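Here's what a typical entry looks like (DUF3626 domain-containing protein):
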Amino acid sequence: MSLPSSIRTPQRRALDHVASLASGPRADPALRVTLNFHPDRPVRGVPILESMARTGSYCSQFVTGTSNGGLTAYPGGDRWRWESRIFAGAYDTALAHERPVYGALNFRRQPAGGAPRFGSAHFRLGVETLERTTFCYPDSFLEPVDFGVVSRMGLVGLALAGRQDALDDYIEAQVHGPVRPDCHVEALVLDPCYRDTAVEAAARRLGCPVEWHPGFRLTVGELRRHPGYRGQEYVDLGTAIAVDGVLDPRVIGAAARTGRFDAQAVKKVWHYVARFGRVWCA
């Protein structure tokens, strides 16, 4: 889907505004936007991949009411306010389904996507979506002043020169217009812990190729070496929910779905796995 400049939709207005703020060279056409998420979480009681198969779309938290970051997508909430500032009010009166979805430019070409802090799986979007994507650095919740579009992407240089923690080392992407797995996605890339599970079965029904990255796997022994990263309480929680002394995305997803643990606490345990459990860095 393209967004003709002659049609002044909220998406077109947002793109044009950010383009007016952007500078730098054109992005490398080999780079891709990725949408990281947890593939085993429910949306209103329905597993997220099954929900996508039914609707045919990947939706923003304004539609789903769920997020792997903060839950502030409502009028006057932080997400609403950030979008109003970044896009000069283009979406202030827009319907929920008209708003952008969030991902990252995978400028470091990481196998698990551009922003694994938000989930072990990712959709790798097709090259055509770059033309309807805006970017900022750092994350929009930090009130950034540096922006980009595919034709003016000085953000890559900024990010490469930065000294961010591995989980914060991403260029945020906002994709304007629909994202349909069957026509806008090159592949859904999953952690190998989901092979031969209901997650893989649901993924096969989305209409896009399914691929596998090397995986996340963190032993309790390694977890205990980093109490200062997110806090001892999350090391203790990770130790409690580990299976046979190991944490991986499937183990954390199972713990999250029990409802026994605070969702934000489980998210912090995932941060440990995403940061210290990258198999390809071992």
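The first strand starts at residue 33 and ends at 37.

More examples are in the samples folder.
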